[in-house]
Amino acid sequence: MIQKSVLFVCLGNICRSPLAEAALRAEAVAQGLALTIASAGTSALHAGEPADPRALAEARNHGIDLSYHRARQVTEADFTRFGNIFAMDQQNLRDLHEMAPRRPLARISLLLDHVPGRHGTAVVDPWYGDADDFATAWNDVAEAARYIVAQLAR
Length: 154
Ligand code: 4NP
What we know:
Blueprint: E1 2-10, H1 16-31, E2 36-41, H2 53-61, H3 78-81, E3 82-87, H4 90-99, E4 107-110, H5 131-152
Parallel strand pairs: 1-2, 1-3, 3-4
Helix pairs in contact: 1-2, 1-5, 2-5
The site of 4-nitrophenyl phosphate (4NP) has 11 residues, from loops.
């Protein structure tokens, strides 16, 4: 297992987790921390597809080109390849625990549990929302990225 590695997980891997991946990559580069960062979905609903156009637009608002992204489903290997797996919401967390092998090496947790004052809250699914909801999701994952880099830099 690569110790300093992070996998972000949402349902479709086209909205929240690709944004989280991009936000953490930007923060890690800014802070000079070497991290392996990826994202995946609990479902295969959108496997092989690019990120949602609204997520692409939100990333672009922050100078990030997300066009490289292709959605994929979580695999069993992810639970041993990644040191840390962060779920966007409680359903993602439950699904991850169900999919996990008996002894996952990865620490699996809710993303916003790592943000002071946000314990137990979700990065709300913006799929049925509008650009504002994507901006809210970005703010959440970008804030979490700062705490994750601080934690993993120790
Ligand atoms: P994500 O958003 O889990 O943040 O990628 C969603 C993407 C697709 C669907 C729901 C949420 N869907 O129902 O297809």
